[in-house]
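Check the record.
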Amino acid sequence: MVKIPFVIRAPKEGERVRGLDVNLLIKGVSEAKGIGITGVVSVVSDLSGVDITGGVSLTDRHKGLRISGISNYTYNHSSGVEVAGVANYAGRTSKGIVQVSLLGNKVEEVEDGAFVLQVGLYNVAGDQTCLVFTMSQEIKLVQ
């Protein structure tokens, strides 16, 4: 298990952050749009039009996100979200999901009771009320 110290700061518009060692936590940003973020450790976003790659944990409440490689993903009241490669996924009142694509359904114990659920959903669209998958009490990073 890797312990992650978080650094709180707001990125500038159009900023691209690289590397998992960035340890980035975005919180309470409401007007930053079109941000490309690579290698994010944890994101709590008030963003729209965000492109996030390689995140570990993500919670969002807005529209137009393109997300890939997320280990733990939760959102509420979002629309126009494109998700790929999500290992642990929970969504409520989700509208207009473009794609959740994985290789298939897979549940595995990583270590010490930490479970990762991979769900194979393809081209899910419309109002998916209470579309929830919860198998993991804790997400552990395995290098």
